[in-house]
Amino acid sequence: MQTASTNICERLCNKSICEISLLLNIPRSTVGGIITKWKQLGTTAIPLRSGRQHKMTERGQRMLKHTVHRSRQLSIAEDLQTSCGLHISTAVCRELQGMGFHGRTAASKSYITKCNAERQMQW
C-alpha cells in the first residue's frame, strides 16, 4: 500500500479520485479525506489531540462567565439551571475555578454608625 503523499502526487497529475482509488486499491472516501485534509491543513499528518475533550464548548464557557459576572450575589447553581438548562456538575465547577471563581464569599463587615466612627477616630 502506498502512502498519502502518493495520493497527493496523483491528484496533482490531474487524476480523479476514482482513478487514484483504483490505482492504489483503497476506498474513494479515504482518498477524498486525504485530499481534503491536505487542502485544509497543508499536511496529511494526524494532529495531536492529547487528553480528554472538554465537555463545555467555548460558547458555553463565555455564557457561563457572563452569567457569573452579571450576578455574583445570586446562587450560581439556581441561576444556571433556570437560564441555561445546565446541570451543575464537576465539569461546570472546574470551568468556574479555571476562570478564577472559587466560591468564596466576602467577609462580613460590622455596621459602623457615625457614633462608632467618631470613637474609632479618637482611639
UniProtKB/TrEMBL annotation:
InterPro entries: WH-like_DNA-bd_sf. This is Transposase Tc1-like domain-containing protein. It comes from the Eukaryota.
